[in-house]
Design goal:
Length: about 160
């Protein structure tokens, strides 16, 4: 993964500008989860993942929707349709756990470190305008609540 300091100034400034539009997060709307050993955990990623038969994501700048990935989806059924020319997919191709650590969560559940793995996980396309994701993020929060999820493992890609 490239470091911010290694990027050209124009690209670094472009990425930093995205964080400047995130006002309004001063409060703490979070709910305190149970102890980790009792948490039901879902994955939410921005890796542009979907199952082979699902509709691929469109261009990053306009892709504000998400894909639902059932927890029993085999790794061989996962596809990454992230469309940035600057994005290196080789890590995902070698081990999907790099961006979608479902196997690691299952191991943690078996070991009793976490309570359970959620039935469903979710993928957005990275690089979408953050403010435009808000309606889908609210919708997704409702789905997570229906699945009795206590905590989310975010894998920003």
């Amino acid at each position: 993964m490239v470091r911010l300091a290694d990027l050209p100034e124009w690209e670094r400034e472009h990425l930093l500008e995205k964080t400047r539009v995130l006002s309004g997060f001063e409060g703490r709307p979070w709910k305190r989860p149970p102890p980790l050993r009792g948490c039901r955990i879902a994955i939410v990623t921005t890796a542009g993942l979907h199952r082979k038969g699902d509709r691929p994501f469109g261009p990053s700048a306009t892709a504000t929707d998400y894909r639902i990935i059932p927890g029993d989806t085999p790794a061989t059924e996962l596809v990454m349709s992230h469309q940035s020319v600057n994005f290196d997919r080789s890590g995902f191709q070698e081990d999907h756990n790099v961006v979608f650590p479902l196997d690691r969560l299952r191991e943690l559940a078996r070991e009793g470190v976490i309570g359970a793995v959620a039935d469903y996980h979710y993928a957005f396309m990275g690089a979408a305008p953050i403010k435009q994701l808000a309606p889908k993020a609210r919708e997704l929060a409702g789905l997570l609540k229906q699945d009795r999820v206590d905590a989310v493992l975010l894998t920003p890609v």
